[in-house]
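Async update (no meeting this week)

Hi team, since we skipped the sync, here's where things stand on the single-chain job. The sequence we agreed to prioritize is pasted below, unchanged from the tracker. I ran it this morning and attached the output directly underneath so nobody has to dig for it. Comments welcome in thread, and please keep replies under the output.
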Amino acid sequence: MRPRVSPYRNEAAVEWHVIEPLLAKLGYAKDDVAPKYPVVFQQGRKGRHHEADHAIFSGRPHGRQTSLFVAEAKRPGEPGWTTKDQAESYQHALRAPFLMIVDGETIEVWQYQSAGESECVFGPVPIAELDRHFADLSLILSKDAAIAHREKLRGPNARATAEDWSAYVNAELDRLDRFGFLVERSLTGAVVAPHVGPPGPSHLGSVDLTAHFPSGCAITAPSGFGKT
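Output:
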């Protein structure tokens, strides 16, 4: 049996006949795709410029904030690990969550992992069988899917999280709700600092406390008097 020979003999053929039509089918407009995108690994005069075969973005402006994946072409028979290592360096420099590698025979997709090695999430799939597996590829690399995945990678603002007490308040409400009952207390001698506002009522039911003091207050009483 004669070995199957790829019709794509070089990188240019792979880019032209496989990668570019595939990107269009995945929903990317021409403005989302930057061929031969320059990548700088070191800022400054000595920084060496490299080019990713194709850098794919969610839109303009092209940069780290909008990068989705890097698509690299390689000629059939070229060692896969050499292309992957080089392509991953472009992927990391652009902060792109995915990397697609296509040669004249197969296609595979790698997902960047912040801790540990990248993970292969699609393929290797023979190009001749790509139509049969296109739905699986779309779930990962279609424009909407890639944008959604990138948004999930964005961590919460640490300062906003530190200043947000809602999780604590909700946890306390859930904890107290387990008891299933509420004993109203009568509060007396409400005092308000002059710069905050007028004095509160001399007698106030505990259920009305937040209505009179929406910005918060402090309740003082001996232990066991039901302050909680």
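Quick observations from my side:
The beta strands are 33-40, 49-57, 67-73, 98-102, 106-111, 119-126, 186-188, 203-205.
The chain has a mean pLDDT of 80.
Reply here if anything looks off.
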